[in-house]
Amino acid sequence: xxxxxxxxxxxxxxxxxxxxxxxxxxxxxxxxxxxxxxxxxxxxxxxxxxxxxxxxxxxxxxxxxxxxxxxxxxxxxxxxxxxxxxxxxxxxxxxxxxxx
Length: 100
Prior knowledge:
This protein is mostly beta strands. It is built from no helices and eight strands. A four-stranded antiparallel sheet has the order 1-7-3-4, with no helix packed on it. Strands 2, 5, 6 and 8 form a four-stranded antiparallel sheet that branches.
């Protein structure tokens, strides 16, 4: 999500090009938030993993996600929490994955 963050459902989909396992998720913010920034990663429309960037930080990591995908499955990302006066900006999620 480029720009100021706001709570809302993700509409863009990323489709798995092959069967895969996500081994790590890195989250980065371009601008700090005064509360935790929380993203709900959904696989095929169902919550699969929560990613949090703590208040006052610009990065967060999920080291051992339980996320596997079959070819053609898709991910979307909902933003479920942002800051109050400093809402954060430019949220990037990086999914480290390997073919299974």
